[in-house]
Design brief:
Radius of gyration: 20 Å
CATH topology of the largest domain: Quinone Oxidoreductase, Chain A, domain 1
Largest sheet: 7 strands, mixed
CATH class of the largest domain: Alpha Beta
Number of helices: 11
Length: 340
């Protein structure tokens, strides 16, 4: 039986283990993908540390997967071997729960599938993915460029395009990191008056290069006051994992302004009720998107020239690459190059 290289976790909190496995066969309704690149996302901590209920081990992480279809399972329509495909956080849905019947597949209540969590992901030379989970990769995107767009990209792009903000509105991106450096680009390319908010002055030049018209240094400026001076934000896109930093932006929302939370801090977001009432403000969380949302994200990125800034590592250095991501040292996404 032919073998493949993979990197797995065998127990919650366990190390990354390079292993050889048999190349799997696609089940009905699924495809086998020859992985070319896989992004390392902060959400991989859920698999690494066993934080998602019900994870079965050993498990291969990875939900920013770019590759080519290698084989089709029975009953798969619309795809063929050789097609370039991506697989993100969304890994399929049941089709019959209330959420699915309303078309909200990402919120499937019965058998929500997540790449690298409920089934093996892309830290491997091959993976099996449900056909529902596939997004077409444009020819203009290299695999290492496409991979981060399948989580970090779709999360920022999809939240902004569903935010209700219109071209010309003031939109602020809190954080210029793995998510934020993409959020700034998308906001600018969508025609928003884009504000970048980050700690210190050192990221200002980069933020402006990415498309920000304004920059707020949260260590030396009153974030809410500066946003209010600019007219009030229609949207603050919060990409950091700091509840206090998110709270500091709420007073800078304009009338009907919205704080959209993408990062998941351990500390609470605090808000005075009077601010919500008087300004008709709202706070909304946003997950990633379905496979067609990922496909839209990549297509827009090609059209508008949005690219992720990546550090690329070979598969055998997955542990080192993960530590660089989890320690906050990466500028800005970390990607494993798995194959050609």
């Amino acid at each position: 039986m032919a073998k493949m290289r993979a990197v797995q976790i065998s127990r919650p909190g366990g190390p990354f283990e390079p292993v050889e496995r048999e190349i799997p066969e696609p089940r009905p309704g699924a495809v086998r993908v020859k992985v070319e690149a896989c992004g390392i996302c902060h959400s991989d901590v859920l698999t690494k540390e066993g934080l998602w209920p019900g994870i079965e081990y050993p498990r291969v992480p990875g939900h920013e997967v770019a590759g080519r279809i290698d084989a089709l399972g029975a009953g798969v329509l619309g795809w063929k071997p050789g097609d370039r495909v991506g697989i993100g956080w969304y890994g399929g849905h049941c089709g019959y729960c209330d959420a699915c019947r309303r078309g909200d597949f990402l919120s499937c209540q019965t058998s929500r599938q997540i790449s690298g969590i409920t089934f093996d992901g892309g830290y491997a030379e091959y993976m099996i993915a449900p056909a529902q989970a596939l997004a077409r990769i444009p020819g203009e995107l290299a695999a290492t460029d496409a991979a981060p767009l399948l989580c970090a990209g779709v999360t920022t792009y999809n939240s902004l395009r569903n935010s209700g903000a219109r071209a010309g509105d003031l939109v602020a991106v809190l954080g210029v990191g793995g998510l934020g450096h993409l959020g700034v680009q998308y906001a600018a390319k969508m025609g928003f008056r884009t504000v970048a908010i980050a700690r210190g002055k050192e990221k200002e030049a980069l933020a402006r290069k990415l498309g920000a018209k304004h920059y707020i240094d949260s260590t030396s400026q009153d974030v809410a006051g500066e946003l209010a001076r600019l007219g009030g934000a229609a949207v603050v896109l919060a990409t950091v994992i700091n509840g206090k930093a998110m709270s500091a932006t709420i007073g800078g929302l304009g009338l009907n302004g919205k704080l959209i939370v993408l990062g998941a801090p351990q500390d609470p977001i605090e808000v005075m009720a009077g601010s919500l009432i008087g300004g008709r403000h709202s706070i909304q969380g946003w997950p990633s998107g379905t496979s067609i949302d990922s496909q839209d994200t990549m297509a827009f990125s090609v059209q508008a020239g949005v690219r992720s800034m990546n550090e690329v590592f070979p598969l055998e250095r997955a542990a080192e690459a993960y530590e660089r991501m989890i320690g906050g040292a990466a500028r800005f996404r970390v990607v494993l190059k798995v194959g050609e």
